[in-house]
Amino acid sequence: MRFASLGSGSEGNGLVVEGNGARPCRILLDCGFTLKETERRMARLGLAPQTLTALVVTHEHGDHISGVFKLARRYQLPVWMTFGTARGLEPGTTEGVELNYCEPGRAFAIKGLEVLPYAVPHDAREPVQYVFSDGARRLAVLTDAGSPTTHIIGMLDGCHALVLECNHDPELLRDSSYPPSLKLRIGGAFGHLANDVAAEILSRIDRKHLSCIVAAHLSRTNNTPALARAALAGVLGCAGDEVLVADQERGWDWTPV
Ligand SMILES: [Zn+2]
Ligand SMILES: [Zn+2]
Question: Domain 2-250's class?
Answer without folding.
Answer: alpha beta
